[in-house]
Amino acid sequence: MDLSLLKALSEADAIASSEQEVRQILLEEAERLQKEVRFDGLGSVLIRLNESTGPKVMICAHMDEVGFMVRSISREGAIDVLPVGNVRMAARQLQPVRITTREECKIPGLLDGDRQGNDVSTMRVDIGARLYDEVMPGDRVTFDTTFQVLPHQRVMGKAFDDRLGCYLLVTLLRELHDAELPAEVWLVASSSEEVGLRGGQTATRAVSPDVAIVLDTACWAKNFDYGAANHRQIGNGPMLVLSDKSLIAPPKLTAWIETVAAEIGVPLQADMFSNGGTDGGAVHLTGTGVPTVVMGPA
Hints:
Keywords: Aminopeptidase, Hydrolase, Metal-binding, Protease. With 298 residues, this protein is α+β, with helices and mostly antiparallel strands. It is built from six helices and 16 strands.
């Protein structure tokens, strides 16, 4: 595993529509390997891995993370923010964050809000100053979490949803850049998934694939639960999502993936999401429909 790459992706700050730090990492890899790169109108990155007369396959992961946006600044220097994406209630109080200004200046601060976690209008960032002229409405706010390597081949950091997917895109690019493949493969890093699966839709229109694989992550609601019901356990193989709120994977496609995994000796964890969805929900409805499946690292 390239820990320096994963660290760079994790520590990049990229809420929806402001993914330039992640985009730059992907572009540098594509340019180094001399791959064709396109963009959709939202800023999603479309990398053509190879040329082929076979079917067109799109492998997609989203660049953005949940975070906040500056709403207003009071005379006393209180910086009011609103969530961008579904930020968990437990992460809305007393969390270190950093503000990225329009001049790309990074300002550390502390996020605090309603102790019950219900009133987003009370969420504020304290940067330890009464006034800060550099901060403006619309500036991006992300969690200030340092990437760390833990024992037993574990890592800790922010934005693994979905920088792990972006890491896999780069890994595929590196390992398959000169391979002869029976399909034309497009590696897509989509914009604005956390606010409505937006880049997944526009990127799919641009690529027009015959089939799509979406890479995304999920956590288990109960920490330290290693029972049989938990199909998202680290080290037990990739997650194969059979259904979520936005997509029911085609049985023929999931069966094919299960067959290939068995042939190469890779265990899978079949799972279903009772809430939420991924870019797959937008991808599979684009055009006349795209057979789509969602997978996740574990």
